Amino acid sequence: MAADAVMKVKEAEDQGKEIVRLAGEKARQTLAQAGKDAAARKKAVLAEAAKGRSDKIAAASAKSEKECEALVAQGREERSKLLAPDPAKLESAVQFVVERIVSASGDS
Fold first, then answer.
1. What pLDDT was estimated at residue 37?
2. Where are the alpha helices (DSSP H) in the chain?
3. How far is Cα 36 from Cα 30, in angstroms, rounded to an integer?
4. Could you report the per-residue pLDDT of 29-51, keeping only the tens digit for each?
5. 54: closest CA among 62, 64, 42, 44?
6. Euclidean distance between CA atoms 100 and 35, whole angstroms
7. Rounded to a whole number, what is the largest CA-CA distance in the chain?
8. 5 by DSSP, 3-state: which?
9. Residue 77: helix, strand or coil by DSSP?
10. Residue 48 CA to chain centroid, in angstroms?
């Protein structure tokens, strides 16, 4: 009977060791899977952040270009005014210069 009790204790010990071994293996598997899941989540978060950043840059660029279009149009308008002055104003300026030259020459 003592030998039978020793055998049962030995079997219980072996079963306990197996349970501990399986638990350790399961823990390692769970940890490895958690690492994979975390890496996948990190990759997804970084991709989402990059997309958000790209969208914001594109929106800011489009807004800037739209604002610049107005300035460029205004500049073109001013340039055309300078390159093609109003003939009446030009004639008036020429007449003024001629009068000044004539009056300056008349005093000499």
1. 96
2. 2-83, 87-106
3. 10
4. 999 999 999 999 999 999 999 99
5. 62
6. 90
7. 149
8. helix
9. helix
10. 10
Alpha carbons 108 and 105: distance in angstroms, whole number: 5
Phi, psi of 107 (to 5 degrees): -80, -15
* Blockwise average pLDDT, block size 10, the chain, 108 residues: 86 94 96 96 96 95 91 91 84 88 74
Half-sphere exposure in the Cβ direction for 49 (13 Å, CA): 6
Structure tokens that stand for 83 in this block: 């390159």
Please name the residue that has the structure tokens 């279009």: 69
- What is the rounded CA–CA span in Å between residue 33 and residue 42? 14
Report the predicted TM-score, pTM, of the whole model to 2 decimal places.
Answer: 0.50
What distance in Å separates the CA atoms of residue 30 and residue 44, rounded to the nearest whole number? 21
DSSP-assigned states of every residue in 37-53: HHHHHHHHHHHHHHHHH
Tokens of 89: 């104003």
Query: How is residue 28 written in tokens?
Result: 């390692």
